[in-house]
Amino acid sequence: MTRPRDFGFRIECFPTRTRTLPPATHTNAYALGGSEVLIVEPAPEDKTEQKAMIDWVQAMRRVGRRPLAIVITHHHPDHIGAAAVMQKELGLPLWAHAATQALMPHLSIDKSLVDGDRIVLDDPLQTWEVLHTPGHASGHLCLFERDLGVLLLGDMVATKSTILIEPSDGDMREYLKQLERLAALEARVGLPAHGEPIEQPSRFLRATHAHRMMRENKIIDVLRSTAAFVALDEMLALVYDDTSVVLWPLAKKSLLAHLEKLQAEGKVHGNNAGYYGWVGET
To answer: Which of 121, 91, 96, 100 lies closest to 111, judged by CA?
Structure first.
């Protein structure tokens, strides 16, 4: 595997092995900028991979490039494994959203980023807009360089698999809203944390939204088809009948996220025993 990979636009990608969800095996770190550089996704826990990332950044310094900070897109382990080590070894500040900081008290976040912030890099001039895109994680961030049309997607989508929305910190309703927001940007290329660059990412984002809604409509069809309450595991088998049973434990989390959305919208009622029934449109 070649790394770093030069994507043009003074953007490099440095894939690192992480304990991410299969079938993905790596998390992509990115270096944005020319003489001034922003490092995104301090991902690996593995010490060899951490050293490789540190060596990559040090090599930038040796040729006169100046790393400014390390940006954390969100708090999941396959995105923060090297954060503390890189902060210490490289002397670089960590930047993240406040909601991410609240979930990582063991890390010292130097700057809280908010939606609408602009990170300006010099030579060549790049202006990266900070987009707070909760749904997959409450503090999730994307970055958008409007002139270049380049969108850093974090874990909003992946080319390797479907992104998991866990009810513990995820929010399906917010996630779908943010997919629509990102699609409306009409970026030229999308750079995910897992997988390959995405040409015409708006098309990919809309397809992801449509896939989620397909799954939600199957839930609605199951619940509408009976006057009785339906057990969660029974619903799982019906809604994910096109998915390998090996993936059902993960699918169950997504199912719960959809059910929480439908409950918040007043369309579904659930009880503590794990049974759900259709209420109707409100």
So the answer is: 96
Whether 282 has a pLDDT exceeding 60, the answer reads no
CATH class (in words) of the domain with range 211-278: mainly alpha
Confidence (pTM): 0.95
Sheet with strand 198-199: strands edge to edge: 118-121, 126-132, 141-145, 150-154, 189-192, 198-199
Q: How far apart are CA 36 and CA 115, in angstroms?
A: 22
CATH fold for domain 5-199 = Metallo-beta-lactamase; Chain A (3.60.15)
Q: Where are the domains of the chain?
A: 5-199, 211-278
Rounded CA separation 19/79 (Å): 10
pLDDT value at 36 more than 60: yes
